[in-house]
Design a protein that fits this description.
2 helices
Length: 123
């Protein structure tokens, strides 16, 4: 029987803690929204004198052959073909069109309008 009261106590404790913690979080959020932070002046950087730019040095281009004292190789020109063979263009075979059978549209049967008997009038 003591075990039953123990469960009830823990349930009550859990509900109480959950309710109090939610109020605290909302209150803290409200206080954060109301806090105003003063604006600080932006510091200015001191003015530095401009540094003159130096001209880029220009170096002559030297190839590997000049460094190794080798003669520059002469590449022979590749002859261009005057006549290129033409290949036949592949043709796609056409598929026969499938003929769909004509399905008649369903028609609703026509019914005659039912006759409603007239209600006799009371004299």
């Amino acid at each position: 029987m003591a075990y039953y009261y123990n469960q009830f106590f823990f349930l009550l404790l859990l509900v109480t803690l959950s309710l109090t913690s939610s109020c605290i979080i909302q209150a803290n959020a409200r206080h954060l929204l109301e806090v105003t932070i003063p604006e600080l002046p932006k510091p200015e950087l001191p003015h530095f004198p401009e540094i003159p730019t130096l001209p880029k040095p220009e170096f002559p281009e030297i190839s590997k052959h000049e460094l190794l004292n080798l003669p520059k190789p002469v590449l022979p020109e590749i002859p261009k073909p005057e006549y290129l063979p033409t290949f036949p263009k592949p043709e796609l075979s056409t598929l026969p069109k499938l003929e769909m059978p004509v399905i008649p549209k369903p028609e609703l049967p026509t019914f005659s309008k039912p006759e409603i008997p007239q209600v006799p009038k009371k004299p």
